[in-house]
Q: What sequence folds into this?
């Protein structure tokens, strides 16, 4: 039984702890709020421990652990990764933040343990899928990733409910977005690149957001003409966000926007995740396209009801941990999502959440 620590007991972190417990891991769940930790309805075998990671993480907390999985806000990434480096335990996280991932890469240099950032949905699963599809071509022309975490029953003008980190959501709407344009790496503005697309008879809009590509730009620079990531929302969402972030200049006062969202936008457990990975290129002398598309809804999984964002995010990092424990992916240094084989991932007990297709 491998011992692992999960940092952050929010909706995703708690789901990670439960899934790993049901999968046979011995789990310690860290959070800075003792009363909140105590209130969580978790299996008895999960150890709850209070730790104010914003003021540092004592490496002694990780003594004897196989790995630490961070489900904390992106600005705490380096703190947790540094503690993992000092203690010599494996490190995994869910961050979409580009700068945080650069910090993790620096800590991973020469490490005897694995540092695997961006193990969620996007970056994460879609990165693995894109790299696998690209391998089916003689030459790749375009790679387009489209992902949305949405309410099944939208009821406000934004067409949105809070399903994951509000801080992370706002960050991806503001920070510059990596892309490959005309075979060169570039930074493109968030909320630009507006397009419409349909899946399963539903119309969505999609636009640039930051962080979704992970290390794909580095991997495919000079190899593809176009590579980009866009977030899917119900029509009208992007225009309202433009008003809030640009016209009202709330991009300069993120804490105010975060407070507004937290106060005014309800959460929901009736959500869905839609994703589309589209690769085009040459195969046997002809233009060809391959698409991997999924619509994943909330459902019962491993001992409890899981929202779609919990399934796809918590399930993803748990799958990567399993593959690491089994020696099926690199066990030292910086590990990219592209280093993870899609077939091994999808056949994993946690990765099977992505086999669900409506």
A:
């Amino acid at each position: 039984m491998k011992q692992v620590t999960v940092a952050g007991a929010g909706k995703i972190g708690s789901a990670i702890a439960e899934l790993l417990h049901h999968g046979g891991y011995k789990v310690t769940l860290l959070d800075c709020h003792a009363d909140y930790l105590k209130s969580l309805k978790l299996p008895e075998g999960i150890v709850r421990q209070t730790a104010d990671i914003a003021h540092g993480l004592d490496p002694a907390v990780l003594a004897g652990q196989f790995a630490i999985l961070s489900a904390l806000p992106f600005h705490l990434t380096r703190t947790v990764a540094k503690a993992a480096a000092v203690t010599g335990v494996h490190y995994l996280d869910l961050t979409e933040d580009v700068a945080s991932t650069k910090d993790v890469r620096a800590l991973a240099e020469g490490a005897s343990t694995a540092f695997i950032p961006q193990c969620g949905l996007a970056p994460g699963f879609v990165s693995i899928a894109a790299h696998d599809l690209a391998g089916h071509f003689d030459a790749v022309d375009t790679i387009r990733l489209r992902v949305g975490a949405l309410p099944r029953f939208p009821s406000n003008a934004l067409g949105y409910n809070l399903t994951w980190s509000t801080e992370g959501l706002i960050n991806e709407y503001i920070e510059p977005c990596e892309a490959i344009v005309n075979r060169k790496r570039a930074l493109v503005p968030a909320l630009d690149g507006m397009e419409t697309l349909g899946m399963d008879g539903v119309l969505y809009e999609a636009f640039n957001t930051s962080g979704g590509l992970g290390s794909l730009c580095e991997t495919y620079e000079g190899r593809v003409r176009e590579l980009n990531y866009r977030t899917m929302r119900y029509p009208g969402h992007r225009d309202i966000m433009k008003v809030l972030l640009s016209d009202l200049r709330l991009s300069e006062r993120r804490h105010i926007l975060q407070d507004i969202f937290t106060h005014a936008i309800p959460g929901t457990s009736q959500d869905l995740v839609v994703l589309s990975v589209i690769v085009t290129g040459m195969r046997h002398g002809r233009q060809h396209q391959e698409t991997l598309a999924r619509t994943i809804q909330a459902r019962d999984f491993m001992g409890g009801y899981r929202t779609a964002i919990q399934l796809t995010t918590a399930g993803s990092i748990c799958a990567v941990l399993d593959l690491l424990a089994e020696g099926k992916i690199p066990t030292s240094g910086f590990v990219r999502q592209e280093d993870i084989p899609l077939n091994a991932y999808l056949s994993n007990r946690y990765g099977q959440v992505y086999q669900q297709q409506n």
About this structure: The mean pLDDT is 94. Residues 322 and 348 are 8 Å apart (CA to CA).
